[in-house]
Structure formats: C-alpha cells, structure tokens
Amino acid sequence: MTTADDPSPMPHRQDPCRTSDVLGIVGDKWSLLVVRNLSQGPRRFTELKRATTGISQRMLTVTLRSLERDGILTRTVHNVMPPHVSYALTPMGTTLREATAPLLEWSLRNVDDIHAARDAYDSRPETTLPPS
After folding, report:
1. Strand order through the sheet with 43-44
2. Which residue would you say has higher pLDDT here, 23 or 117?
3. Mean pLDDT along residues 83-93
C-alpha cells in the first residue's frame, strides 16, 4: 500500500509562508481599527468612517471588502427606505479582536512615548560614518 492509497488521515503540515496572508490583516492598521470599531456591535459605513480617524472613503471600502472576503465581518443590506448597509464581526472576527486587543491597548499606552522617541531621534545631528 502506498501513501496515496492510505485512507488514514495524515497530519496536515501548515506552510508557514501561508500565514503571511493572515498576518497581513493583523499588520494592517485600518483592518485592526475597523475590527476594534465593530467590537461594540454592527455599524454603518458612515459610523465606521467617523470612528476611524484618517481613513479615506476609498480605503475604508477596500478594507471592508477585504475583511468581508476573509470572513472577518459580514455586510448586511437592510431593505428600508432609504436602504442602508451595516457591518458586523463574524465569530472569527470576534476572536481576531480578542487576539489583537492587547496590541491595540499597548499602542494606546505607548503612543506618546513613541512620538517623543521619534522627535528625539529626528532632532539628533546627523552622524556620518567614516569611509571604509
């Protein structure tokens, strides 16, 4: 019997490079901010735009489509007059929020120190390396 004929399940080995797609969500500031803004419940596009400071309408649209495609959120069209659309986290989106909450909290606690460090770094006199 060959390996191909063996019906017993073999352990599935994950290719670590495949995770880079998923880590792209975590590394994208807009995605995490949208997920955070949806953690309190469904929101309409305009509410998300208002709550996500600095994001353009186009970038919010792209981010929402990407998160919907990845199964992180759902898009619901409400058949009312006038029609409107709302977005909500899926169960997977909720676990993403839980997993990234410490990172966002760390960011809030350290943003002032990071900006101060950047200012200090940027104000240092430029040093030149000796020729090699």
Report:
1. 43-44, 84-89, 73-78
2. 117
3. 95
